[in-house]
Amino acid sequence: MQEVQEVQEVQEVQEVQEVQEVQEVQEVQDRQAKQDKQGKQGKQGKQGKQGKQGKQGKQGKQGKQGKQGKQGKQANSGKYVAYNNQQKRDAIASPFY
């Protein structure tokens, strides 16, 4: 009777060890899957960054055009100010002011 009990106990211990091994294997697989995902995300992240830079490049181009437009406006307004000043000088010089 005692011998049978001892054998059963040994079997139970072996089963527990097997379960632990399976858990370890799963943990390793989970870790690898996570790393793969991170690696993929890292790659996507890099592409995302490049995409963002590309967008910034486009914006930079638009910004340059915008700046040129602004300069053009300033040049026109500068002409307008000179024209205004000329009118003011004429008005001051005029006795009918």
Q: Could you walk me through the main structural features you see in this protein, from its secondary elements to its overall organization?
A:
With 97 residues, the protein is mainly alpha-helical. The protein has one domain (19-93). Helix content is 95%, strand content 0%. It is built from one helix and no strands. It has one helix at 2-93. The longest helix is centred in the middle third of the chain and has 92 residues, at 2-93. 0% of the residues are buried. The mean pLDDT is 65.
Q: How many beta-strand segments? A: 0
Average pLDDT works out at 65
Low-confidence stretches are: none
When the domains are counted, the total is 1
Largest sheet: none
The CA-CA distance between the termini, in Å, is 131 Å
Percentage of residues in strands: under 5%
Rg (C-alpha, Å): 41 Å
**Strand-pairing-aware structural class:** mainly alpha
As a percent range, the share of helical residues equals over 70%
Oligomer: single chain
Number of helices: 1
The backbone outline, from C-alpha atoms, is rod-shaped
Topology as H/E string?
H
List the helices and strands and how they pair.
Blueprint: H1 2-93
Organism: Photobacterium piscicola
InterPro entries: Collagen
Biased composition (Basic and acidic residues): 28-39
Compact summary:
The protein is mainly alpha-helical and 97 residues long. The protein has one helix at residues 2-93. The longest helix is centred in the middle third of the chain and has 92 residues, at 2-93.
